[in-house]
Amino acid sequence: MAVKNLINVEAVSKSFGIKPLLDNVSLGINAGERIGVVGRNGGGKSTLMKVIAGIEAPDSGRVAKISSLSMGILNQADTAAVGASVRDVVLGQKEKHEWASSSDIREIFTGLFGGFDDHLLDRDFHSLSGGERRRVNLAKLLVADLDLLLLDEPTNHLDVEGVAWLAAHIKARTDLAVMVITHDRWFLDEISDQIWEVVDGEIKTYEGGYSAYVLSKAERARQISVEDGKRNMLIRKELAWLRRGAPARTAKPKFRIEAANTLIANEPPPRNEAELLNFAQNRLGNTVYELHQADIYAGDKELLKDIYWNLGPGDRIGIVGVNGAGKTTLIRTLIGENKVNAGKLVTGVTVKPAYLSQHLEELDPTWRVLEAVEKVANHVQLGNGKELSASQLCERLGFSKDAQWTPVGDLSGGERRRLQLTRLLMDSPNVLILDEPTNDFDVETLTALEDLLDSFGGTMLVISHDRYFLERVCDRFVGLLGNKTMRDLPGGVEQYLQLRRAGSQPVTAVKTAGGVSNAAQQRDLKKEITKLERQIEKADLEHANLLGEQAEYAMDYTKLAEVTAALEANIARKSELEEQWLIATTTLEELG
Question: What is the share, in percent, of the chain residues with pLDDT greater than 90?
């Protein structure tokens, strides 16, 4: 079957100022292709997309499209007519009978907004928050019948669950060609079959997703030796983590395993866990934060109830959860900005926290970059005998010697975030708390940030919608599922998504069981929850008895084997009951 070419870029150049962003670029997009675009901020990624979309005219060269091409673009500007409602923006002139019966449209609204009703559809577009506007414009494009979809940072303002849904939705649309600019490397890996890197006015192409791109880039650097030593080390370290990390990545069919093994044979793991733990224990002692039967509120709203949580020295924990479940309130409670309403918070006497918030009001726009850092300290101790000057740390986070004299007010959002993180690290904290630290960062800066965090020896808590970043820098995960509880996630982010999917299934079943009232459903669920809690208590008692029998029959191997088998069955049964309880309580919350 012949490949259908949708659009061709022929010898295109485009400049803003002296340096060209695109220099004699030629490339094309075919039907069904999935292209991820990476490169430094300000390097020309958005300009390339706008030239392809026809929003920007090239200085030279041309863009040729097939006459029947239907194309849509999600860019950084979220616009709509004055007075337009969500219904107007997403559904346009479609009659209700046209869209209300469409399973595809219902699935898009459910994936992006958790469902849809007249209240949502009638809201004024301009009354929405920035994140809500972005999801509305994304829904408009996904509802449309397009040949080519151009997406500039589509995962901004989406949580982990929303990013996973969007990736699955795009993968299912096999007839749709997609070009996406994003710093979300997990998303790139999921949907891309090729990567375009925009660098120095050129477009370098790589087959496969982000994992394959990292390997190919490392291999290219090794063969022609054009990269400097520092960048080579970052790429190789990144590759080492990819190959030692999540099994789903190592199984990518386009990963050339033999070449990868050759490249990383002598590379150390990204972090020396023994050294970091020793450093953490020396600086932190045995207690960092402990919550004992704590109730946590945001104003009058109870977010978490009866929480017991112990954070130790050297823990690197990622926090995931539904919007509004209390992730930010939880970490603000740990650092004392929010008080527990019941229970107790214990903070270790040696704890010295640093908190990177989503808002950066602490920075004076009149300061120079280096001046802002030196106001905190001239040198920083990273632990294990490692020391960096203020200027060196600025360079590690992407501020060149010249950029260090830029006024803070002239920096982009991502640059200000980098600067504030630099200031926090200069104060030598031993607990680092990061709330959405990857916002506005390009892939290269994220890699440098991860490399820097590898050498941080204290305790670290991270909230992020960037799944790749979470899995890269964290060793453990906890989930807040919106039912006022906290759950350990040994299976990481994937386990969280499975729990969310499992929790949503009974809601669908209840809603389609015609003739049953909401109140009746809630009564039934409460009875089921009470029943499950009794069964869990019984399983706990049985568990304790079996542990006692294990100790009693330690020398009777026949009896010990029987008790051990019974204990394993008890553990499996208790886990099953807890899953059922979680599903029932989540469903009750949804109905309430």
Answer: 22
